[in-house]
């Protein structure tokens, strides 16, 4: 039996499907690494069709009870599609209706022409996966199949990725490592910069180096420290931070929690200041956690209130608050309504909870300025999954706008401007010098290719 679709105005649907996305958040690895098979196993365990079932869906599979050894074997290289299907079949039946499962099924439909994963379809999916992964497939998936102009990428491979596809994949500059300054972060920075770090002055000089070198090419700066601590980044005098930082390279794990917080608070705010100097928006992870066990919801609930002081102390710096703060999204609507420099990004949200995201979009548009919202970011490592997520986001946007028209909250003439604004216009306004230039270059390159 076909799945029942929620009521959706057909003309509104046509508008939403015709409007290109600017995708404001991905973790894509470089296409060249995918083609060469050199992607780290921690990012993509196997270069086969199971990769489409990996990120995020693996968390639902774990939650449903799939044994860790079965997951390891399913995602590992070496097994054929029939064997892999037998491993995942009992658990796929339990998760295929979740947002993560739905995104995978939309990818199977849109990229491989398969409605679902079955014993019969698994070998075909495996073959079609391999056929798609060839030079140029990122443009094929994003622009041709998904109507996505460009994807902002927060690389998990480098602090700033000098991508081979700058028109398609404008990059964030990560300041997560720069503001955390753990031993592994210091080692990474020393390797990437060729500098030795002995004290706070050395570390700040390295931060300056990243911003001077990559700031002109970055589309934003990004930090996901909310996974490990509260966002209560207090103002700290430099001399206190210098004292706490001393010897950190060799004795980070011996520092007390107060010294760690003091150092990180200072470094975080230093990086925010550098972002302001370079006119770079600040993207912050908020809300729900990827992965499994644990997720301290009490700390997550403080994300919105912790951000108020930062929003007030850096009034000229735009803060992009990611993932709608789910499951505490009401507080983030309040922030966007109240603070001039607070924006909210729906990246990842459409697959965490599609119905809640439709509700959120309706409530946001009736409470906060429409200019403060970004409508889509896939948040994926594998490019294929972005397609399925984008289909869900388009459906959700069309449903929300259809409902607002049907309920009399907005007029039919409001739909096209709103769709354009939240799907691409706001990104072009907030990231003008990077996104606008790169997408124009990309369209020109695509036009030349089609000739």
Fold topology:
Blueprint: H1 10-18, E1 21-26, H2 31-36, H3 57-64, H4 68-75, H5 81-95, H6 99-112, H7 121-132, H8 137-145, E2 148-153, E3 172-174, H9 176-180, H10 183-193, H11 200-214, E4 220-223, H12 238-245, H13 248-251, H14 257-277, E5 282-284, H15 297-300, H16 303-313, E6 319-322, H17 329-338, E7 342-345, H18 349-352, H19 354-367, E8 373-374, H20 383-406, H21 415-430, H22 432-450
Parallel strand pairs: 1-2, 3-4, 4-5, 5-6, 6-7, 7-8
Helix pairs in contact: 1-20, 3-5, 4-5, 6-20, 8-20, 11-14, 12-14, 17-19, 19-20
What share of residues is helical? 40-55%
Q: Rg, please?
A: 22 Å
* Unreliable parts: 1-5, 435-451
What overall geometry do the principal axes of the alpha carbons give? globular
For the record, the count of structural domains works out to 2
Strand fraction: 5-15%
- Helix vs. strand class: alpha/beta
Number of alpha- plus pi-helical segments: 22
- CATH H-level homologous superfamily name of the largest domain: Metal-dependent hydrolases
Mean pLDDT: 93
Note the run of SSEs as H and E. HEHHHHHHHEEHHHEHHHEHHEHEHHEHHH
Question: How far do the termini sit from each other?
Answer: 43 Å
CATH class (first level) name of the largest domain: Alpha Beta
CATH architectural category of the largest domain: Alpha-Beta Barrel
* Order of strands across the main sheet: 3-4-5-6-7-8
The tally of beta strands, per DSSP, is 8
CATH topology of the largest domain: TIM Barrel
The biggest sheet amounts to: 6 strands, parallel
């Amino acid at each position: 039996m076909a799945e029942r679709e929620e009521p959706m105005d057909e003309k509104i649907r046509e508008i939403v499907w015709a409007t290109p996305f600017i995708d404001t958040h991905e973790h894509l690895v470089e296409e060249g690494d995918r083609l060469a098979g050199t992607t780290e196993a921690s990012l993509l365990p196997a270069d086969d069709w199971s990769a489409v079932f990996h990120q995020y869906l693996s968390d639902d599979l774990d939650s449903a009870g799939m044994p860790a050894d079965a997951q390891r074997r399913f995602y590992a290289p070496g097994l054929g599609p029939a064997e892999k299907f037998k491993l995942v079949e009992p658990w796929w039946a339990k998760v295929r209706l979740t947002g993560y499962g739905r995104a995978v099924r939309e990818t199977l439909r849109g990229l491989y022409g398969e409605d679902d994963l079955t014993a019969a379809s698994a070998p075909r999916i495996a073959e079609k996966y391999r056929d798609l992964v060839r030079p140029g497939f990122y443009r094929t998936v994003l622009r041709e199949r998904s109507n996505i102009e460009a994807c902002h990428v927060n690389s998990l491979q480098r602090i700033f990725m000098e991508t081979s596809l700058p028109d398609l994949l404008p990059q964030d500059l990560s300041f997560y490592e720069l503001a955390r300054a753990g031993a592994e972060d210091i080692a990474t920075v020393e390797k990437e910069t060729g500098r030795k770090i002995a004290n706070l002055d050395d570390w700040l000089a390295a931060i300056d180096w990243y911003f001077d070198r990559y700031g002109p090419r970055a589309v934003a700066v990004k930090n996901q420290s909310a996974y490990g601590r509260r966002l209560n980044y207090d103002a700290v005098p430099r001399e206190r931070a210098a004292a706490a930082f001393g010897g950190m390279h060799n004795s980070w794990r011996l520092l007390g929690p107060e010294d760690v917080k003091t150092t990180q608070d200072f470094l975080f705010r230093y990086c925010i200041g550098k972002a302001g100097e370079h006119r770079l928006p600040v993207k912050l992870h908020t809300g729900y956690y990827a992965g499994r066990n644990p997720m301290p919801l009490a700390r997550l609930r403080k994300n919105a209130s912790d951000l108020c002081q930062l929003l007030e102390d850096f009034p000229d710096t735009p803060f992009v608050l990611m993932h709608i703060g789910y499951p505490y999204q009401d507080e983030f609507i309040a922030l966007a309504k109240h603070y001039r420099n607070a924006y909210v990004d729906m990246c990842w949200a459409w697959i965490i909870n599609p119905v809640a995201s439709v509700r959120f979009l309706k409530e946001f548009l009736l409470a906060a300025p429409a200019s403060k919202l970004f409508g889509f970011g896939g948040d994926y490592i594998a490019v294929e999954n972005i397609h399925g997520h984008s289909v869900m986001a388009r459906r959700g946007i069309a449903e929300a706008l259809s409902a607002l028209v049907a309920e009399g909250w907005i007029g039919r003439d409001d739909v096209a401007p709103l769709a354009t604004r939240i799907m691409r216009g706001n990104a072009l306004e907030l990231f003008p010098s990077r996104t606008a230039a790169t997408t124009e270059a990309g369209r020109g390159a695509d036009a030349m290719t089609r000739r």
